[in-house]
Write a structure and sequence with these properties.
heterodimer; A: 362 residues; ten-stranded mixed beta sheet; two-stranded antiparallel ribbon; B: alpha/beta; Peroxisomal Thiolase, Chain A, domain 1; nine-stranded mixed beta sheet; 13 helices; 35% helix; 18% strand; globular
């Protein structure tokens, strides 16, 4: 029997053994959330030849505000069918945090496998108005600052600090969209040079069109398994050898927007620097945010960053972070990488960040 | 192998229809600071924060934990936000407890709240959704037919619900934090209140409250240290479980849901409880509408199916001479900050076990049950707490 690589934190080895996602698209006009999730569940369970009855715990991430009604996660449960009654939970966060909750539960006996999923159908409303409601309700939200304008302030801070140039933003976008050509689930993919991208108009200066994420309808699911079960279900499980998440203060005025100390701390506690990193999937909705995250994680040369195209290729709210973990894990499971870093973010301007290290072991 | 976990601090706000003296941050901080003080700890002692609340539209803030992170001392720490409908206060406590039983953290602050006066829960529950049956008149309109079905099935007489409404409000008079203090409450007063959702009179329904609940959960070492520092004993968690089932399908028993029965069986097995009526000294159970007391008495196995109303009728669930007092705090019928209502059940059960419940203390409580439910009677969270280290 092979043995899992040693892990930081946690007492039981836990691995990603399967990942699936829906086709990311601007507008899923024909399927609601349940109908979007059903084939994703069939896919993620089918890949390891199991049924929903083989998992001991189910955990999801979503937000009511995309649907515009209460309890959006309740009807989504019908996509999996929690009968007979199941041990199940939900976070009003990106599903990467649902994965964290499942990882915690899997540390204890009696739970050997978990199904984690997230979904977001952004096309149902005006996303820039909706996301503004995440802001401090007394001071900021009444001003309705939209996420692009906020991101532009962050990008401007990077330029003013001399930490990056507009060409650097374009280079991130060019690389991500080029990588996305190899990702059949991506929404935005192209092969354009930095010079070409620099001719685009500003959406909100200094951000041009290419530096913005697409608006995406999407969903994703992951199966986690502990110990021997992971070897039983997957030839090469993607072991979670470290995982941590941290939050910063809310007010953008109270932070140095050119840094991401919460990412740095989570990365340190997850053990990013304990070994060579082959691949990093960073949840950077805006091009300049990838630069901030790569610096916070101290990713050196030779790391393949966002080979899936990242959030610039598809940005399904509430599933985007989980997809980063899935994309990183896929590259471990198929042998393209031995050690991968996955990152998820939540809140305005990278306020909250989760970092996981995934390893294939021997 | 799991680590032990105990409640080492509790705190709650004064619940009220409108807490316009505080912001949302002020509200959660009020409860959190009381829990920290009770545990003899400061913000820096906390490893992680787990916060829960019911739908965000109840206040109109999307994912408010982001804005609340600094108010809860969470900057630089992990914070998670749970949402499992009405059971969320209980589920939140359980997510926090697992952070300790898994051996990951030693001291976790868990908080749940609702500031209903900031928005309109009835509206938020009734937003029309394409291709979905509307809830219409909020939760009461949804549950009233289930109650009628229970009455028909069990043959319960019509006064049972009113009896629960009076009993819980009389018990609330002994709880200074309760929202409703109705010293003149009587069967006649309930009967004369307006019929909201037949058979539920106005006074058989929970109020709409602003409020928050908080607990500090600690590992074995943290519990020992807190007891030395504060002289107050911990409430040990003897069992905890969650179960979910679908909202509707043909053949589902919505009156006595299987998820509730199986959730109870799971916590009883963990805690070694074989006869809940004998083994518990008291219970805090989510009763937002009066008739859910007899319904949950049956679902939780305190009696045989069909007999729940007889326990209520005989006064068995009353602090005043009953053998198994339910909702000594006044329950959800007396305070309903929705997201916090489940955690208040978990917290009040812990207070009883710690001997800290003041005037509504059931003397000599060694073991207590807490239950929260949500959605269409489909999400359940429970724990058993006791004086003895498991």
């Amino acid at each position: 029997m092979p043995t899992p690589p040693s892990a930081r934190g946690g007492r039981r080895p836990v691995a990603v053994v399967s990942f699936a996602q829906a086709q990311n698209q601007r507008r899923e006009a024909h399927r609601n959330e349940v109908e979007t999730l059903m084939p994703v569940f069939a896919d993620v369970l089918g890949k390891v030849g199991i049924t929903k009855d083989d998992v001991d715990f189910i955990c999801s991430g979503s937000t009511d505000y995309l649907v515009g009604g209460p309890f959006s996660f309740v009807s989504a449960l019908d996509a999996i069918g929690v009968w007979p009654p199941r041990r199940e939970s939900h976070v009003e966060m990106d599903a990467a945090w649902a994965l964290y909750e499942a990882w915690v539960v899997l540390q204890e006996d009696g739970v050997d496998a978990a199904l984690v999923y997230g979904f977001g159908k952004s096309s149902l409303g005006d996303l820039s108005r909706i996301v503004a409601l995440q802001l401090d309700p007394y001071v900021m939200a009444p001003l309705w600052p939209d996420p692009v304008a906020l991101a532009a302030l962050q990008a401007r801070a990077l330029l003013d600090a001399g930490k990056a140039s507009e060409e650097d933003f374009a280079a991130v976008a060019a690389r991500c969209r080029r990588s996305a050509l190899d990702n059949p689930m991506a929404q935005v993919a192209y092969d354009r040079t930095v010079d070409e991208l620099m001719t685009e108009d500003y959406v909100v200066a200094p951000l041009r069109r290419h530096a913005l994420p697409p608006i995406t309808d999407g969903a994703a699911a992951i199966v986690l398994a502990a110990g021997d079960k992971a070897f039983e279900w997957a030839e090469r499980p993607a072991w979670i050898t470290g995982i941590d998440h941290r939050i910063e203060t809310h007010s953008p005025g109270g932070r140095d927007l050119t840094l991401s100390p919460s990412t740095a701390m989570a990365g340190r506690l997850a053990g990013v620097q304990d070994g060579r990193v082959d691949v990093a999937e960073l949840h950077a909705p805006f091009a300049h945010q990838e630069l901030i995250l790569a610096q916070a994680l101290d990713l050196g040369e030779g790391v393949s960053v966002n080979p899936s195209g990242g959030a610039l290729a598809a940005n399904a709210l509430m599933a985007g972070g989980l997809i980063r973990i899935g994309e990183a894990a896929s590259r471990i499971m198929d042998g393209r990488a031995d050690r991968a870093v996955a990152h998820a973010t939540s809140g305005p301007l990278l306020q909250q960040n989760l970092v996981a290290v995934l390893e294939g072991g021997r | 192998m799991s680590e032990r976990v105990a409640v080492i601090g509790t705190g709650q706000t004064k619940h009220a229809a409108k807490r316009d003296d505080v912001s949302i941050a002020g509200l959660v901080r009020e409860a959190a600071l009381r829990a920290l003080e009770d545990a003899g700890l400061g913000w820096a002692d906390i490893d992680a924060v787990v916060i829960g609340k019911a739908p965000d539209m109840f206040e109109g803030v999307m994912m408010p934990e982001l804005y609340l992170a600094p108010a809860l001392g969470a900057v630089g720490k992990p914070i998670m936000r749970v949402h499992t409908a009405g059971s969320v206060g209980g589920s939140t406590a359980l997510v926090a407890a697992h952070l300790v039983t898994s051996g990951i953290h030693d001291r976790v602050l868990t908080v749940a709240f609702e500031k209903q006066s900031d928005s309109d829960a009835m509206w938020a529950l009734s937003v029309p959704q394409p291709f979905s049956a509307p809830l219409l008149a909020g939760a009461g309109g949804y549950f009233a037919p289930h109650i009628r079905a229970y009455m028909r099935r069990s043959g319960a007489p019509g006064h049972i619900g009113m009896q629960v409404a009076v009993k819980d409000r009389l018990q609330a008079l002994k709880n200074p934090y309760a929202h409703l203090h109705l010293p003149d409450i009587s069967i006649e007063m309930v009967e004369q209140s307006v019929m909201l959702w037949d058979p539920l009179h106005y006074l058989e329904a929970c109020p709409s409250s602003d409020g928050a609940a908080a607990m500090v959960l600690g590992s074995e070492q943290a519990a020992a240290a807190a007891q030395v520092d504060t002289g107050r004993r911990p409430a040990w968690v003897h069992g905890m479980a969650m179960r979910s089932e679908p909202t509707m399908f043909a053949g589902r028993d919505q009156i006595n849901p299987r998820a509730g029965r199986e959730c109870a069986a799971d916590v009883y097995r963990q805690a070694g409880v074989t006869d809940p009526r004998r083994d518990f000294d008291c219970a805090e159970v989510y009763v937002p509408f009066s008739w859910y007391e007899p319904m949950w008495l049956e679902n939780l196995g305190f009696c045989d199916e069909g007999d729940g109303w007889k326990l209520t009728d005989a006064g068995s669930t009353s602090m005043d001479g009953g053998d198994i007092p339910w909702n000594c705090s006044g329950g959800v019928l007396s305070s309903n900050p929705i997201g916090a209502s489940g955690m208040l059940r978990f917290l009040e059960a812990a207070m009883q076990v710690r001997g800290e419940a003041g005037e509504h203390q059931v003397d000599g409580t060694r073991r207590a049950l807490a239950q929260a439910y949500g959605g269409g009677s489909q999400f359940f969270a429970m724990w058993v707490v006791g004086t003895d280290k498991p």
